[in-house]
Amino acid sequence: MTISYVSCSTTASPFSESNLSSQWRLWRTCWKRTSRCCPGCDSNRRNNRHCRRWTGRCGLRILCQYNNNNNNKRSPDLPSTLVIHQEKETMENNHRQVPFLPLIEELWNQPYQPEKLEKAIYEWWESSGFFLPRNDPSKTPFTISMPPPNITGALHMGHAVFVTLQDILVRYHRMQQFPTLWIPGTDHASIATQMLVERMLQTEQGKTKEEIGREKFLQLAWQWKEEKTKYITQQLRAMGSSCDWSRERFTMDEQLSKAVEEAFIRLYEKGYIYRGYYLVNWSPRLQTAVSDLEVEFVEEDGFLYYFKYCLVNNPNEYIPVATTRPETILGDVAVCVHPQDIRYKNMIGQQVIVPYIGRHIPVIADEAVDPNFGTGALKITPAHDHVDYEIGKRHGLSLINLMNWDATMNENCGCFQGLDRMECRRQLWNWMESHGLVLKTEPYRIRVPRSQRSGEVVEPLVSLQWFVKTATLAMPAIKAIQNGDIQMIPSRFEKIYLRWMENIHDWCISRQLWWGHALPVWYLETTADSVDESFVVARSEEEALYKFKLKYPNLEEENIRLRRETDVLDTWFSSGLWPFALLGWPNTETLDYRKFYPNSVMETGYDILFFWVARMIMLGYELTGKPPFHVVYLHGLVRDAKGQKMSKTLGNVLDPLQVMAEYGTDAVRLALATSCHAGQDIPFSLDKVMAQRNFANKLWNIGRFIIQNVRQRYGKDELLAAYQQLVQNPGDWLSSVGLAEKFVLYRLYELIVQVTRQIQAFEMATAATQIVDFVWDDFADWYIEIAKTRWQEKDSLQVATLLIYVWDYCLRLLHPFMPFITEALWQWLYDQCGLHKSNTEALVIAEWPQIDESFCHGMLFGKEMEKELSYFDSFRNIVRTIRKVRADYGVAPMQKVNTVIYVKEAKELVSALKQEYQALKALAKTEDCVVESNDSVFVTDNTSSSGNGLEYRDGFIYVLVSPVIMVAVGLRGNIDPKKELERLTKQHNKLQKEIETLSSRLDNPKFLKNAPAKVVEDNKQLLQQYQQQRETVLAQCNIVRILAME
């Protein structure tokens, strides 16, 4: 009996009021499920502690164990655990309790139709509880916290990437029988969501958020959240995400909100959080500060403005200064030059006059100035430029703020007050020009800071904000990478991470928004003149009042009025708690926290390494004393086939749901999996999806072929007995079969070892590619084609058994990558071949293929097997050679040819090839196929040789396959020499034209000089390839001419 469980106490103390309600909902869901499946057991359920009569459609029995005090109650108040027992039952009833088996039967003789199967399969998985973690104390749990998608709309191809990669890891570890937990959730995304809700409000009601007020606006935002979350979770399910949906979370859930407050308070009490004035990136449209990481610098066309800074003591003498932002001249507090710049050395310490304002400011020296940029003199505006701010701090300069929060000019700008910053730029420059202060303007490419969210130009402004001191927090996060406690894949990102962490700046965590986590900060407003406005950090208003009373013991309570901070926290602050807050933190005694924390893996995009990963590591160590996860796997960005970023402007955006609807989820997943290498951008196109859709069709056809053929010949009991014998005694079975059977079994076991290692090493693309290659090439194109020739042999039951066995293992290996079609094919295989009598009920929880290492190293991978496999390689090379000759000389596909296979000094090889006589005939499409040992034929008759490794004698083409094998393929009577010569001549002329074009290009000095080195090299290789093809075609022409003259 296999036992799976789900802990109900995932978010709080097992006996907390909030947790009681969530546990009751979960229990009630299970209870309702029993009612739907088995209405007849209702009375039994009412009167007994356990409903033992009900078994669900999937063969699962739900057993609700709860407090003994509630034994006599119909509705237990607090189930302590919900245990799902999988019971081994003889599934002889209709379709084995798998609801979609009749649907497979209906679709079986039609092309694969994923749209008719995927939803039914997923609903069965989820309702059966297969996504819940097993309870196996002997194994280390495997845990992933899903990067929560923003509730800003539909998921994109980037989300499809992380769903695919994480689901591969989750399904693999579940099949390895680890307790496996994948927790889904969504993120409130403060800035982006508020911007979209404001836009919706303006569109639908023609109002601003200020007009409807904070309370009504937040109601709208929560409605938006409910709609978007429902849609996002539907999308995640459609992508095949095998998450534990009973643990689904939202970053503004009650429990997570409490975790955010607690984290803020603990960090504040330790001195890591402070409030102060600082130069921040200000978004005028959103009216909030934004993080440095949320600012993108875009190169745009602009101007460099040159003007005069006149000396106070000699207005005719000036320092030339260049700037890209003339409007900030009004806030200049110094002109700075490099201390070693001889042009301005005598001016250091003098005073200059600020244009229009007339303020006198000093000329200072600082090594931060680049003497080669512009004029080598830098105007210093600490209130509106980050570099200037740092220079201003070093030199004790004042801050003069020029702008209001909406980026209009303020009272410090004289007559320019009220103007937009760009209009101020124009008017101030005109004024300076009229007063003879302008030197020139010149076009210049400037780096413009733009908000990632709104796209507007971000303005550096001094603002009162809340910050986290990160230098100390970063120390354990740095050591974690250096000492290997956290592994980063690919490892090259470790250096990037360490460089950023070692130069980290304090983190501005406050945002002037309405949607988000309110800071747990309370301000004191009092009517008493003797007390200034102050604040405390507290978990509630009551706690805040208590702290204020301690702080001001003489203050009368009737004079106290509290006001909560209206700012909200940066979204990344709450996201930084995600791996442990999901599991119940700050209550570290919950079962989930103790069992599943730290997480095993954090899989995400490299573009949020600093936004999210670094902050999770810092906060994880500080708040839990542990790393939040052990491995960070970073995937790249999805790009189109040309390597371009997907964008609406370029028209190359692909909607994953639309693509899945057309091609099937499995095709999309496999296309992504085979393209995704750690840390590299992912080239993606519909051609790749189409190729994997074709592979899905191939799988469907393979399944149909195997089941139809084995069931025509054998009954279920016979197949089951033979299958069990193969599973239990592969050595005995292997000694009695042919080369092809030994080959495919060897390759299967080799594949299992390789794929297992590759997934464990996070090389999912390599693993997926190898499985596809094996199924398509080794299994379908070779073994199945050979198996077709074996049905009339007396040991054909061995062939049927091996087909089932290899197919079963192929489906298991493919399942993490293509879960839907593999589950459908596996269920039908087990149903039709009787295997369900001795095995598990679903592929999603079936065991990952295991092999007996002693058997593999002793027999399968031994020297004797190595020799036999070399014989099969020779067999395949012979077939390939014959097929190539047929194709090269235009033999009709169904035309059979006579063939002779000559072997030199290798009697065992001759014997092995003769054993595969029928297979050779079938696969090479030969009328007769003679295998003989003959050394003399290897002596080349130069008079009839083509000079290109081919030889024609007496109507046969002789081709050397290897040093000991030569194949003679009969052409006389099988081709029309005249037509074939015409075809080859056209082919030759086409190649000649390509050769001339490439030769002319490579002889052109301009091309060699101007073209990229790779393009030149590619052209050289292509020329060489065409030349070789031309020689081959000429050789074929010579042979066809000889054939025509006979």
From TrEMBL:
Listed EC numbers: 6.1.1.9
Keywords tagged on the record: Aminoacyl-tRNA synthetase, ATP-binding, Coiled coil, Cytoplasm, Ligase, Nucleotide-binding, Protein biosynthesis
Pfam family, one: tRNA-synt_1
Membrane-crossing residue ranges in chain numbering: none
Chain ranges of the Aminoacyl-tRNA synthetase class Ia domain: 121-684
One GO term (biological process): valyl-tRNA aminoacylation
Coiled coil: 981-1036
GO molecular function (one): ATP binding
Gene Ontology CC: one annotated term: cytosol
Cellular compartments annotated: Cytoplasm
Major location (coarse): cytoplasm
Limits of the Valyl-tRNA synthetase tRNA-binding arm domain: 978-1035
Catalysed reaction equations from the record: tRNA(Val) + L-valine + ATP = L-valyl-tRNA(Val) + AMP + diphosphate
Residue span, Methionyl/Valyl/Leucyl/Isoleucyl-tRNA synthetase anticodon-binding domain: 742-899
Protein family per UniProt: Belongs to the class-I aminoacyl-tRNA synthetase family.
Quaternary structure (record): Monomer.
Name assigned to this protein: valine--tRNA ligase
Species of origin: Galdieria yellowstonensis
